Structures are given as C-alpha cells and as structure tokens.
Amino acid sequence: MLSGGPGSGKGTQCARIVETFGFKHLSAGDLLRKEVVSASEYGTMILDTIREGRIVPSAVTVKLILREMESSDNHKFLIDGFPRSEENRIAFERITGSEPDFVLFFDCPEEEMVKRVLSRNQGRIDDNIDTIKKRLKVFEALNLPVVDHYEKRGKLHRVGKFTS
Ligand code: AMP
C-alpha cells in the first residue's frame, strides 16, 4: 500500500514501482473518478464528496478495490491512496481477511504538497486552494492515524522528512 497527502507524488511513483516490480496498480482516487465518469449509482455522491475533499464511504471504496483485485490475473497489488482512514483500514482488513505486507508513506511538507497540486494542471475539480486545504485537514485527521497504526505494526516505510 502507498500513502501520502495530496500532491505528495503517489501517482508518479506508483507508475515507476509498477514498471520496476510488476504490481497491479489500484488507485482509490482513480477508481472513484472512473466511477463518476461511468455514471454509476454512486457517481453523484462520489463527485460531491471529492469536490468537498471528504472521504467516500468505505463500503463503496472497498467494493471498487475488491472488484479490481478479483478480476486481475496479477496477485501482487499496489494500492494507492487507500486506506484513507481507520474506518477504511478496518473495513478492508475485515472483508479481505488480510493486511498489507508493506506500506510506503510519502512524508511530504505541506507547502510542497500545495505547490505541486496547484501546478499540476490535470483538470481535477479538487485541485483548487479551497479543496486542497480541506483535503490536507482530512489527511491529517484521518490518514495519519492509519500511518501510525502501520508504524506500530512495523510495516511502515517512510520516505521524506524524518522526525525523531
Ligand atoms: P487522490 O486522487 O488520492 O488525491 O484522491 C482524490 C479524492 O478522492 C480524495 O480527496 C477523496 O475525496 C477521494 N478518495 C480517494 N481515496 C479515497 C479513499 N480511500 N476513501 C475515500 N475517498 C477517497
């Protein structure tokens, strides 16, 4: 699994990791955006949630990830941007009965993340300063406890700034 705040470089590095190690890449954000475009029953709710920088309910995200895992021939998965919260993590572990072997965390300074998101020009509705501020708050409140959990389990590999 790969974790990091908005603009920390998850997508870019996932492409490289996949190329080098042959994982099947599953990006929670990309799967949710695909669901919006495909006009699924959850489309409007997902779009509103992304626009607000909030977290889509675990039931929906876990279902999308599992669907991709089950339909893939590959048995090595690189799951990016998930779990985003303890609720995500617990739901995933309960449903799959498994834990990640390895969690990579991009510990990127906030100013750098803001700068990168504002300059990436990918046409995303959530790449504006108001939504970024909300995404950063959500990241700190909900995602960092997941990072702490994996650190305690000895699974976390941190890239970037170090604290003692
Ligand atoms: P990302 O592409 O990873 O930056 O995700 C963009 C947006 O998709 C987030 O701000 C959330 O609104 C939503 N999202 C991404 N991953 C998840 C997840 N694991 N659970 C719920 N919502 C998510």
From TrEMBL:
GO terms for biological process: 'de novo' pyrimidine nucleobase biosynthetic process; pyrimidine nucleotide biosynthetic process. InterPro entries: Adenylat/UMP-CMP_kin, Adenylat_kinase_CS, P-loop_NTPase, UMP_CMP_kinase. It comes from the Eukaryota. Keywords: ATP-binding, Cytoplasm, Kinase, Nucleotide-binding, Nucleus, Pyrimidine biosynthesis, Transferase. It is an enzyme of class 2 (transferase). It catalyses: UMP + ATP = UDP + ADP. Belongs to the adenylate kinase family. HAMAP family: Adenylate_kinase_Adk. PANTHER family: NUCLEOTIDE KINASE (PTHR23359). This is adenylate kinase. The lineage of its organism: Eukaryota, Viridiplantae, Streptophyta, Embryophyta, Tracheophyta.
